[in-house]
Structures are given as structure tokens and as C-alpha cells.
Amino acid sequence: MEKWLEGTIVEKRHWADKLYSIRLKAPVDKFTAGQFTRLALEIDGERVARPYSFVNPPQDEMLEIHFNEVENGPLSPRLAALEPGDRVWVSARANGFFTLDQLPGSENLWMIATGTALGVYLSILRTEHSWRQYRQMVLVHNVPYKDQLSYSEEIDNLKQRYGERFRYQPITSQERVDGALQGRILAALEDGRLESHTGVVLTPEKSHVMLCGNMGMIREVSAALEARGMRKHRKREPGHFTTEKYH
């Protein structure tokens, strides 16, 4: 049976239309960067729960999640309405295998996200272990509009700390933005812009790719990687890319 803890909202950030982050305190069990928790509220006499990845690294005392408010969704509109001091149920134990200890060795790690799936990579990138495991880390974030490119301060801190070892490439599909590629991840990968702008070559010999976000992106990019001779990673059959549908 799932164990629930009562958490307290400490801060809420409204990034853009229907795009939020909340920070909260709850004495959850130790987790591994890349894992997810479950949040719940009592709604009409029922505890309604949904999974959300941690944005914060495991060493932080404050928990953080990043989410979209889904119109008519069973939980997210109510999460978006919470304010500091409000309470929320949090699962005591994290779950998930989208973690670095599940991956084979590689020289470079590509972390490709759509929307709020960015959060899981920020948790991983802010652990020292990740930087000991890989020579270079590439973060790719695809959103429709500029104001959805969240967590710029945290990303700038990573740039300052790790220099050329960290490459960040935003992609916007619905408007032109300085420093961002325009379009979708698949197109930028297939026409060479993604590698050209990051300065990192994506090959089976030197790269592992993590894909997290909407299923359309995961299907398309997985197929493009397979066309390059890369195969999906499985525990019994080490491969070159790992996928997770974002919650």
C-alpha cells in the first residue's frame, strides 16, 4: 500500500499560460535524480493522484515539480490554484528507472525534452555524479513559445559552472527566438542543425540519448536514431537511447 505524507506548499511560480512550478516541503524518502513522485488532493471524497518528476536534485531539502494545467484535468487545475501554506499529499517513496545508473557507459549524454519534461533533466544535471559519468552533456528543450522556456536561471548557472562541457539548445516551434532553433526536434536532427549548433556529434560510438516528453516526439526521434544505427536501451541488451513518456 502506498504511504502518503502531508506536504506544505512553500512557493508557486507561474511561468506562462497554464505553466507552473511548485516548491514544497515533505519528509519523503531518499530518491535518485530522474525518478518521479506522486502528488494527490482530496477531491469530492476521493484522493486523486498523478505522477510528477522531481525538478530538484536529491540533495535539496525543498521538493519541486513542474507541470502544465490541463483543462478539465482531474488534478492539475487544483494544483495550479494552490498557494503557499496550502497542503498536498506526497508519496513517501519515489519510483522510476529514468536514472543514470540504468544507462550504459558513454562519452556524451544527450537529454532531449518537450515541455515540462525539462524538469527531470534539471534534477539529473544538478548532481555531481552525472558530471563524473559523462564528458559532455547536451540539453535540448522544445516548446512552442519563448515564455515556455522555463528555468533559464538554473540553466545559466550550469553554463557558468561547467563551461564547454554543458551545451543547451532551445527549440521553439511557433515563433522565432534569438539563440533558439525554430521548428521541431526531428527536423533539427535530420537536417543537421542540432549537431551543428551544439557542436557535438551524435553517434552510436560516443553518445547516449535520453528522450522524455510527448509520445509523438519520442516515436519520431526514436525512429531517426534507429536510422543512424542506434537501438533502444534495454537492461539485457545495452543500447544507445532511453525513453520515458512524461507524466
From TrEMBL:
<dbReference type="InterPro" id="IPR017938">
    <property type="entry name" value="Riboflavin_synthase-like_b-brl"/>
</dbReference>
<dbReference type="InterPro" id="IPR033892">
    <property type="entry name" value="FNR_bac"/>
</dbReference>
<dbReference type="InterPro" id="IPR017927">
    <property type="entry name" value="FAD-bd_FR_type"/>
</dbReference>
<comment type="similarity">
    <text>Belongs to the ferredoxin--NADP reductase type 1 family.</text>
</comment>
<dbReference type="Pfam" id="PF00970">
    <property type="entry name" value="FAD_binding_6"/>
</dbReference>
<dbReference type="GO" id="GO:0034599">
    <property type="term" value="P:cellular response to oxidative stress"/>
</dbReference>
<keyword id="KW-0521">NADP</keyword>
<dbReference type="GO" id="GO:0042167">
    <property type="term" value="P:heme catabolic process"/>
</dbReference>
<dbReference type="GO" id="GO:0004324">
    <property type="term" value="F:ferredoxin-NADP+ reductase activity"/>
</dbReference>
<dbReference type="Pfam" id="PF00175">
    <property type="entry name" value="NAD_binding_1"/>
</dbReference>
<dbReference type="InterPro" id="IPR039261">
    <property type="entry name" value="FNR_nucleotide-bd"/>
</dbReference>
<dbReference type="GO" id="GO:0000166">
    <property type="term" value="F:nucleotide binding"/>
</dbReference>
<dbReference type="InterPro" id="IPR001433">
    <property type="entry name" value="OxRdtase_FAD/NAD-bd"/>
</dbReference>
<keyword id="KW-0560">Oxidoreductase</keyword>
<feature type="domain" description="FAD-binding FR-type">
    <location>
        <begin position="2"/>
        <end position="101"/>
    </location>
</feature>
<keyword id="KW-0547">Nucleotide-binding</keyword>
<protein>
    <recommendedName>
        <fullName>ferredoxin--NADP(+) reductase</fullName>
        <ecNumber>1.18.1.2</ecNumber>
    </recommendedName>
</protein>
<dbReference type="InterPro" id="IPR008333">
    <property type="entry name" value="Cbr1-like_FAD-bd_dom"/>
</dbReference>
<keyword id="KW-0285">Flavoprotein</keyword>
<dbReference type="InterPro" id="IPR051930">
    <property type="entry name" value="FNR_type-1"/>
</dbReference>
<keyword id="KW-0274">FAD</keyword>
